[in-house]
Write a structure and sequence with these properties.
By secondary structure, the chain is an alpha+beta fold. It contains five helices and three strands, in the order ααβααββα. It has a domain of about 80 residues: Orthogonal Bundle (Arc Repressor Mutant, subunit A), CATH 1.10.10.10. The longest helix has 16 residues. It is globular.
């Protein structure tokens, strides 16, 4: 991925108030942990239950639950009870795009 030339860079519809920027910063903080990114990447293909997530991510169930709480509190992951299990899905499919774009940027600056 190459950056756009300055002549093509236009105004992007961005938040206008401090409160808007604070909310946006909270979303980026939630995305700023490798375990939470792993959770979002795993749930991008559909729902995943906590028991499956902790095995796939090689983390304790308690640790995954703590990270899921952050994602849930920020409105990024949505829980759904299935019997005695709780499964999660992405709250917004555009999160996939954010993660993909960030990965592209990371590749470009390496």
């Amino acid at each position: 991925m190459t950056p756009r030339p300055e002549s093509e860079v236009g105004a992007i519809d961005t938040p206008q108030t401090t409160a808007d920027y604070e909310q946006l910063a909270q979303i980026f903080k939630a995305l700023g942990h490798p375990t939470r990114l792993g959770i979002l990447a795993k749930t991008s293909g559909g729902e995943f239950c906590i028991t499956d997530l902790h095995e796939h991510l090689d983390r304790s169930q308690a640790n995954v639950s703590q990270h899921l709480a952050v994602l849930r509190d920020r409105g990024l992951a949505v829980p759904k009870r299935q019997g005695n299990k709780v499964c999660y899905r992405l709250a917004d499919e555009r999160l996939d795009q954010i993660i993909e774009l960030a990965a592209d940027i990371a590749d470009a600056i390496r």
